[in-house]
Design a protein that fits this description.
The chain has 103 residues and is mainly beta. Helix content is 0%, strand content 56%.
Length: 103
């Protein structure tokens, strides 16, 4: 979950999406479709008009969510296994994760 741009951003791995929930709770949530990018999301951070999303596959993508049904991918990077935690600070993206195996 992340907060920024007047919204709360929550990953929804059941729908391969990030839910954009207005902070004022006066409007309905909007699903930002991510299925065409990397599959189930596991983390999200807000970055000045964009969102940075981590995926269970170990990929991380920076996305412009202005068109929810077809968001613009700004960049993607493979960082290892399960990018399950993301933070952004002064244009630096920090990613933590774990193994994909069930130990």
């Amino acid at each position: 979950m992340a907060v920024g741009g007047g919204n709360v951003w929550v990953t929804d791995d059941s729908g391969d999406a990030v839910q954009r929930i207005p902070e004022d709770l006066g409007s309905a949530p909007t699903a930002i479709s991510l299925g065409q990018i990397e599959g189930p999301p596991s983390a999200v951070a807000y970055d000045e008009g964009a969102i940075v999303v981590g995926f269970r596959s170990g990929a991380v993508a920076k996305i412009n969510p202005s068109n929810p049904s077809s968001p613009t991918v700004i960049w993607t990077r493979q960082v290892g296994n399960n990018a399950s935690s993301i933070a952004v600070d002064r244009d630096v993206v920090w990613v933590a994760g774990g193994s994909l195996s069930n130990l």
